[in-house]
C-alpha cells in the first residue's frame, strides 16, 4: 500500500469511528420510541387483562418476564387445558403469532381478544415487554 492509500484508509476508518456514536445514538432513540409506543399499545390492547407485575392480580396471567418462560407456567393461574399442555416457550415469534391469532396458535385457549395484526404494533409491544423485563432486573 502506498502512503496515500494508507492515509485515505486511515481517514475513512476515522470517519466511520466518528460516525458510530451518532448511529448508536440514533439507534437508541429508535429503540426508545419503539418502547414508548409499545407501552402505549400494551396499555390500550393488553392491560385490561394483563399486567407486567407478577404481584398485581389481573384477569389474565401476568406477562412479567414472559420471553423465555414456558407457556402455561404461572403458578396458581387457571390456564385452559390447551395452553397448560401447549409445550412451548414464549419467544418473540411465539408472542407475535399469539397476538396475530391466538385461537389459531393454540386451538382451545380461553383467551378472547381482537387480533393485533399490524406487525409494527406487534414489534412495539414485544420491544416494551423486553424492556420491562430488563428494567425489572
Automatic annotation (TrEMBL):
Q: Which UniProt keywords apply?
A: Electron transport, Heme, Iron, Metal-binding, Signal, Transport
Q: Which positions make up the signal peptide?
A: 1-25
Q: Does the keyword Zinc apply?
A: no
Q: Which InterPro entries match?
A: Cyt_c-like_dom, Cyt_c-like_dom_sf, Cyt_c_1A/1B
In this protein, which residues make up the domain named Cytochrome c? 33-133
- Pfam families in the cross-refs: Cytochrom_C
Entry protein name = C-type cytochrome
